[in-house]
Write the structure tokens for this entry.
Amino acid sequence: MARLPLTHLLTSGGDRIARGREMARTAADGATDVLHPLITIVRGLRLMAAATRRRWAAMPKDRRGPTLFLAAACVLLVVLMPYGPLLALLTVMGVAGWQGRDRPTVRTGPDEAEVRRLQSLYEALVPYFAVAEDPSPLFTHGGAWSTAFADHAFDGGGRLTRLQVTYPPYFPDGEPAERARVEQLLHAKSGRGREYLFDWDEEGNRLLMTVLPPLPTDIAAQRFVTAPGESVLGFTDDGAVPRTVPVATDTGHRDASPVVWRTGPRSPEPHLLVAGRPGSGATGLLRSLALQALPHGDVLVVDGGGNGDFACLAGRTGVLAVECGLEGALAGLDWAARETERRLIEIDRARQAGLPAPEDARRPLWILCDRPGVLGHLAAAGGRPDPQELLQVPLRHGRTAQVTVVVAEHLDALDLLHPDVTAHTRARIVLGPATPARVAAVLGVEPHTTPTPDVPPGRGYVRLGTAPVLRLQVPATPDPYDDATGEAHRRAVLDLLPPRQQTQRQAYEQVPGQAPAPVAAEG
């Protein structure tokens, strides 16, 4: 008789054991399914018995005798009734089945890990909210966190998403430096890499910290529902602005909260300054504004970077010129200054005659300057005047003449901007990663949230004049001629571009001081 090797015996024995365990597990699961009603009733009877035992133990001794007499009378009555025992049995089984049913687990408080996190956060806040002179301090080492944290919430990973802190009345919550210290601590202890909103209630001595969801990045360039003279800079948090607009996304249609910038004679802030790091989306914002302005006005583009980022606009109806060099920029901005003066003269004559301003003086003119500091440096090196000096007239009189100036520059090159540019562009946008101090240097105040180091292109903050600071996500408006642009976004931009002109520079190369000649467009 042949002997089987030891490995074969061990392998076959292990397989039989595994199959046996699987069969036993299957049989147990089947028995559980079959006996589930019985298990439920038994569990309910056990719960009912435990409740009866607790009530009997809590009952005073002088009431136990009458209670037993009443129970015996009820049992006797049930026995004497027709079908009484059967009905009583069915009733008890029904109540037991209801009591023993499977119920979802409801959390009534934080678990052990969350309690440790809250206690650690409470101990970290003690040096900020406690003083030695307080006889009954709200924050003290070894104290209970529940006395200071009125509300809290955690996400699935065990990190805080919401926390309401009650602090003592003597804390100087009106001093920005003191508030910044507390916000920095809460930001560090609650988890970095997220954006937090801190809402200080100085009257009630409460601080509410909330983790903000990321702004949507699936909104591409499209025709937004706006009135003439309004442009959508981007989109912000729901409820931060009093209006919404319908937008199309990759997944369908929905309403979003836009940041609307108003231009024209009644605009409080008719000019815009965009600051950001390379790749932050400033050029895309200028393309988006150009696409929104072309249906109602004319656009002059000065591309100081010279990278061809506005090649898609060249030769289009309404685009007067796309200048990339120093000579072209000087000529274009000189024409814009003369055109602004011509419009002012026409508007003044119409007012003196009691007539409305002529149409060519009321048609909006947009001047988009991308990185003018580079052109200024080239002009200084060649002994030429700075092109930014030619923006003085459009900046100072653009509101009356329907001329809007938008300047985009790198954060590290803001010192290259002309003083008139920084003085008249009080609508500000900061795109890309930036520290709160850098954001405050551009917008005038620190952001109301904690900036994150990693943000998508087009993400930043906006402040229109003295209005509150809002989070901003610029609609995706890439260069359609770039090979890296997706087909959906490329098609979205191309659909918004107007047709090409038959005479591309007719309105731009006119004699200074005369009205622009009409431009013939394709079909």
